[in-house]
Amino acid sequence: MDRNKMIIIGLIVVIVALIAGIALMLTGNGNSSDVQVPEGMQVYDFDSAFTMVVKDDAKFLKTWDSSSLGTHKKYFNKKDDYVIAYYESDVFNNLDNLISFTFNDTKKYNITEDEGFTVVKTLDKNEKVSVGNSEKYFKYGIPIIEGNKYIMVWGNNLDSLKEMASTVKINGGNSDE
Amino acid sequence: MLCMSVVCAKDSMKNQKFGNEFKMDVPKNSNFAQQARESDENETVPFDEKLYFDEKNQIAVEYINSSVFSNNTAIFCQVFFESVNADLNKSYEYQEGDLRVMEPVSKSSSYFSVVGKGSGNKFVMLSGQDVSLMKKMAHSIEFNN
Predict the structure, then answer these.
(1) CB neighbours (10 Å) of residue A154?
(2) What is the reported pLDDT for A99?
(3) What local confidence, expressed as pLDDT, does residue A16 receive?
(4) Between the CA of residue B20 and those of A81, B37, B103, B113, what are the distances in Å?
(5) Could you give the CA distance from residue A83 to residue A61 in angstroms, rounded to a whole number?
(6) Searching chain B, which residue's CA lies closest to the CA of residue A43?
(7) How distant, in Å, are the alpha carbons of B49, B65, B92, B138 from that of B21?
(8) Chain B residues within 8 A of A26 when measuring between CB atoms
(9) Are A48 and B74 in contact (CB under 8 A)?
């Protein structure tokens, strides 16, 4: 890394951060959280889009891309075997829209309500979630939507998924109202 | 034995002031020179930004004081990581206390890890290849009020 590259990087950081800053001003800033955090857990900041309580030692394989459909990030926790997928898109702006668009095949998915959560059960083991360079089957998924922000928590332990999903606070959202 | 290793660790570091903004432990053999940045006369970014680079250890340090951001270390880490690794779209990421760490999945001399620490509107981003050294440095950051 040479000096010139660093200067260019500095410029890029300022420009990108300025754009992100304006977006934050529009959506609401800060990650203040009233979530009770048990010992051994922490509030994890998912790129200032949302927060969720995870284990202190949580380490994620994170992937990201942007397209005309919006921003898409995935956080795969290999140790505890779950994926948090985040989408920012105007395509999915409510849960009914999402379900009818993505999980409408009753041979592949079973949709139920469980303790206030919509639970997607993956019936077809060929339906996989991409993690890094590979794909993985997960038994359950819990979608959370607020505005144009859509989070999907995928894993195999439903109780654990519900516990994590209950701590999601979307930045600029109304989940704590 | 533990004390001896702590002394050893401290012996290899010195405490350095970075302007009036913050101070941080850095390797004794380092020389963090502030990099000049050409500014646009019409630039109205709500930032105070300073960039330092140590050629010896190949570590870059960026300080940002923003009137827009507050407690958004994660965003700056992501932006910085993408800036130094333009062709990557994945990383390992974790929080360690008040530090945010992003490491390239592929080990290569052309990819760099990023360690970030923030306090309110102030952020310091470190970029380089020796993650444990950068974490040690970042843990020691003290922002001036």
Answers:
(1) 25
(2) 87
(3) 61
(4) 45, 18, 29, 26
(5) 9
(6) B95
(7) 10, 9, 29, 14
(8) none
(9) yes
At A143, give phi and psi (nearest 5°): -90, 145
- pLDDT value at residue B38: 56
Sign of the dihedral defined by the CA atoms of residues B42, B46, B50, B51, in that order = negative
| Residue A34 phi, psi (nearest 5) | -105, 15
pLDDT at A173 over 90: no
What single-letter amino acid sits at B56? K
CA distances from A144 to A91, A117, B49, B78 (A): 14, 8, 37, 23
**Residue A73 is encoded by which pair of tokens?**
């990030």
Q: Amino acid letter at B79?
A: V
Tokens of B132: 């444990």
The span from the CA of B113 to the CA of B104, in Å, is: 6
Residue whose tokens read 């040479």: A2
Residues of A in contact with B84 (CB under 8 A): 1, 5, 9
**The amino acid at B25:** D
| B113 token code pair | 């890890």
The structure tokens listed for A30 are 């800060």
Distance CA B141, CA B122 (A): 11
H or E stretch covering B6:
helix B2-11
Q: Exposed/middle/buried for A83, CB within 10 Å: 0-12, 13-18, 19+?
A: buried
Q: What is the mean pLDDT of chain B?
A: 87
Closest partner residue to A9 (CB to CB) among B47, B69, B83 is B83
DSSP label of B36: P
Q: Rounded to whole angstroms, how far apart are CA atoms B68 and B72?
A: 10
